[in-house]
Amino acid sequence: MLRLSILLLSTATVACGGAETKKSESNGNGNVASVAIATPTPMSSRDFAPLRRFAESYEPKSGREVIPSPPLLNLQLSELISNAAHTNSRSHEQYVLLIFLKLYRFHLEHFKQGYELGRENPLTKEFYRLIGETNYQRAELMDSYLAVDYVDKHSELLEYAPIRTEMQRMDQARERIRRESMKD
Question: Any idea where the domains of the chain sit in the sequence?
Fold first, then answer.
C-alpha cells in the first residue's frame, strides 16, 4: 500500500493552466517522491490591454428611468477576467474597480445615490471576490458604493490616475448634491 501511494505521488501532475515545478519529498524510509505543483502563469501588461481599454473607455448609460447595471463582458474579456482571478495582479484589480467606480459615479451624478449591483453578472462576482465580499448572495444590499469604500481602504489604488480622477469626480458630485440639498 505504501509503495502504491508513493508511486501515485511520483506521477501526480496538477493542471491549473500554470507553470509546473517539481517538489521532492521523502517519506522517511529512504523513498523519494516527486510531486508536480502548479504555479499561476504570470500575466503581462500586454495581456491586460483589452481590459484596460474597456475599463478606461467604459461609460455607463441609461434611459430616463433605467438605472444602469454592471456591463456584460464579451467572451474575450470574460476569459481574461477568469484567468486573471488566479493571479494577484494589481492591474486586474485596478481595471475591475475602475469599471465599478464609474458605475457608482454615474449613479451619484444622475440619481444622487448608489444602487444595487446584482448577484449574477460574472464581472460583478469578480468584483465581490476582489473586494473580499464573500457573503454577497445573502446580503440585503450590495451597493455600488462598495467600490469607493474599497479604494478608501486601499489608498495605493489612487496611484492609478483614472481611479484618482473618478474619486475626484465623485467628490465633486457629492458636493453638488450637498449644495442642492441646502437650497431646499
Answer: 2-39, 49-183
